[in-house]
Each structure stands twice: as C-alpha cells, then as structure tokens.
Amino acid sequence: MSPRFASTPKPPYYAVIFSAQRTGGDNGYDAAAQAMAELAARQPGYLGAESTRDAAGFGITVSYWDSEENIRNWKRNLDHAAARQQGRAQWYSHYELRVAKVERAYNFAAPETD
Amino acid sequence: MSPRFASTPKPPYYAVIFSAQRTGGDNGYDAAAQAMAELAARQPGYLGAESTRDAAGFGITVSYWDSEENIRNWKRNLDHAAARQQGRAQWYSHYELRVAKVERAYNFAAPETD
User: Where along chain B do its domains lie?
Assistant: First the structure.
C-alpha cells in the first residue's frame, strides 16, 4: 500500500477536496480509480493525495497541487474528463468538489514504540 | 445517521482538513469524537463537516467555517484543546491538519430513481 499521508511542502499550495457517495457495485470503478490516481500523480504540479472510504461507500479524497493553473490543466485532461463523465453516470450518487488554498498546516507523529 | 455532505454556502469560506491514522482500540475515542463533533457544531461560524474512515483506521474529516477567526476560536476552546491532547497521547499515531480557503465549489447529485 502506498503511504496514506501526502508529503506536502510548506504552504501555500492548493487542495482539491472531493467527497462522494459511491453507488452499489463496482462497474469498473476500482480499476478506473487506480488508473486516474496514477495519471494524476504524473501531472505537472501534483503534490500528493490522501483518500479513504467507509463501508457505506462514503469517501473523501484530497489531492494537493502547486497551483490553480495545474488543477485546471488536470481538469482538462481528456481521460480525466471521460472518467468524471462516467462518475456522474454510474459510480457516484452525489459528490461535492471544493478547490481551496492551503494557508497553514500542522502535523503530529507519535514516537515509534518497539 | 446525520447527512454525510455539508451544505456549505457559496465560496469563499474555510476548510480544516484533518487526515489521521487511528491507533488500535477505542480508549474513549468514539464518545469523545461524537462529543467534539456536537460541540464544534455549536460554535460560531461552523458551517458543517464531512467525515469518513476506512477499516484500516485511516480517516479524513473536513470541517467548514466562515472565517479564520472562528477556526482560531474553536482551537482555543478548552474542551477541544483537552481532546487534542488526548488525541496525541492515545488515539492517533499520525495526523496532518491543513487550514485552507475554499475558492470554488461544484457538486453533483444523480436524479432520484424509484
């Protein structure tokens, strides 16, 4: 499994917050989601992503970017646009997408215990 | 269950993005998390929250606020500060917290099918 936390630089940078309710059944979702995550990671300005989903199919994915311009470039990617169209047709019953500028960040990691 | 999606106003507003890895065991977490969610919802400037966690204990909670000042006020709440301290001592092995200004938002809801 890839790391769950994104290693982001010092702010400012941008976050795309995507919260979504999945429909039932796979319908090609898992393979497409993995392909999109890999494609996103190769785009200019991509800084990382964090993603989780519960057993009820409610998920939140936050991807981090260096600029609004690179978020827009990724939105214009044709494979990504096709995946979004299929998302609305099949995979999601509802989603909210918010683009935000990260201004401050903190973190915590517990000391390792052996 | 309360609604999974936050009904947020037109941007701009603020998001606190909290991604965290839970430790094993409850240790009072579930009750404290519910109490904190209810307390947050009564604070001035609170707009809503979205939260999910997978079976591996990796969760993302995004809370939405009308201003940075009200985020700071909530941070200064003494019960909240005590909960954060217990979070670092017991409940989380790692977390990342980012404060971001939401600049644009979109959503999608599938047509109801009966």
Answer: 19-102
CA distance B104 to A73: 16
CA distance A37 to A76: 15
Q: Which helix (H) or strand (E) holds A32?
A: helix A29-41
Q: Over pLDDT 70: what percentage of chain A?
A: 96
Give contacts of A98 with chain B, Cβ < 8 Å.
8, 11, 15, 102, 104-105
Rounded CA separation B57/B36 (Å): 18
Domain B19-102 fold is Alpha-Beta Plaits (3.30.70)
ipTM computed for the complex: 0.95
Helices assigned H by DSSP within B16-114: 29-41, 68-76, 78-86
Inter-chain residue contact A94 with B58, CB threshold 8 Å: no
